[in-house]
Amino acid sequence: MSDFQASKALVLDLHRALDPAPAEAAADVLARYTTGDWHFRGMHPFNEQTGPEAAARVFWEPCKRAFTPFQRRQNIFFAGRNFMDGYRTEWVCSMGHLLGLFDSPWLGIRPTRKMSFLRYAEFHRIEEGRIAETALFVDVMSVMHQAGLRVFPESTGATVITPGPQTQDGLLFDAHPEEEGRTTMALIQRMIDRLVATGVRTLKSDLELDWHDDMLWWGPAGIGAAYTHERYLEQHCRPFEEGLEFLTHHGHVLEFAEGSYGGFFGYPTMRMKSKGGYMGLASAGEFEAEMRIVDLYRRAGDKLAENWIFIDNLHFLEQLGVDLLDRQQRLSGGASSS
User: Fold this and answer.
1) Distance CA 52, CA 58 (A)
2) ∠ CA 193-291-186 to the nearest 5 degrees?
3) Pairing state between β 90-102 and 67-81
4) Share of the chain above pLDDT 70, in %
5) What would the 3-class secondary structure string for 129-143 be?
6) How far is the C-alpha of 275 from the C-alpha of 282, rounded, in Å?
7) Alpha carbon distance 243, 237 (integer Å)
8) I need a surface site. Which of 32, 212, 215, 328 has the fewest CB within 10 A?
9) Does residue 26 contact residue 61 with C-beta atoms inside 8 Å?
């Protein structure tokens, strides 16, 4: 059995302390669980920070002031060793939603005074009983959509509050046989290697090798979710692949798995060029941009059944000359940023 129980306990203790803490206490709480030079990777506009005070200032304090009372609704939780560094480092993943009443402005988004769901995926590298590195991906565009701001065209896939696994078994609080995780990781890597080798071009024959027919693909706001091979090809692959030209795959910071769950993140993952039409926003031209991506998977038997995806589209689009944060502030009448 793989034994990541101490690392899992550390992250769960952080959640229990951080989630109910007031905004002004966030930095102190983070400091109790992280190293002094803690490396924080966030999505745009939070980006990279060093140390708990900086991470609290750019993300946790504004977020906690905007969404109250603050609640974490976790759907996936697992741990493992990183394939990318020869299984040397140990990581813990948590995915779900951060929930609160949206009562104060956030990133210039005007509050709705209604419940709002901030979709998140976070990855923590554990070193000598402390968190030394964190990547936190959140779906800011989903909050814009929930607030009624139509600053981007209708998604080609379904716009929904993303659920957890169909099997309701994504919280791996207990240890799992190491071989299960290795099987999951090998399947994910086989699928990704094939995708990169084709220049990010997906055919139904490719999906039939690695994915169940009734696959579920839970994409980010602006793209949306898709169900079954045919609708995944129609509602994500074709718009994505027709709007962008694949240039370079940089690889991943992390690839790991435990049990039937696994995934990766890149920071950045790949370099793309706009051919025009990406999400109905980016025009064609000589623009090249880096894309930061998270993929989390559930394996069922010898194929993949579900995939949860985060793309830092605010960062990607800004490189292509589209500033959605500025656009939504102008649309909402310049709500002050928190």
Assistant:
1) 10
2) 25
3) antiparallel
4) 97
5) CEEEEEEEEECHHHH
6) 8
7) 10
8) 32
9) yes
CA nearest neighbour of 96 among 113, 126, 64, 71: 71
Question: Residue 148, Cβ neighbours under 10 Å: how many?
Answer: 10
DSSP 114: S
Beta strand 254-258 with 261-274: parallel, antiparallel or unpaired? Answer: antiparallel
Q: Where are the beta strands (DSSP E) in 16-62?
A: 34-42, 48-50
Measured CA to CA, the distance from residue 73 to residue 118 in angstroms comes to: 10
The answer, yes or no, to whether residue 335 has pLDDT greater than 60, is: no
Rounded distance between C-alpha atoms, residue 130 and residue 111, angstroms: 35
Run of H or E residues at 80: strand 67-81
DSSP single-letter state for residue 86: T
Tokens linked to 20: 């109910």
Residue 283 banded pLDDT, cuts 50, 70, 90: confident
With bands split at pLDDT 50, 70 and 90, how would you rate the model's confidence at 332?
low
Residue found by looking up tokens 């379904």 in the block: 158
Q: Which two tokens stand for residue 229?
A: 């091979």
Longest dimension (CA), the chain: 56
Q: Distance between CA atoms of 138 and 153, rounded to whole angstroms?
A: 20
Look at the block and give the residue holding tokens 């909050």: 143
Cα gap 170→232, rounded to integer Å: 23
107-145 confidence digits (pLDDT tens): 999 999 999 999 999 999 999 999 999 999 999 999 999
Q: Does the structure show a pLDDT above 60 at 323?
A: yes
pLDDT digits (tens, 9 = 90+) for 217-236: 999 999 999 999 999 999 99
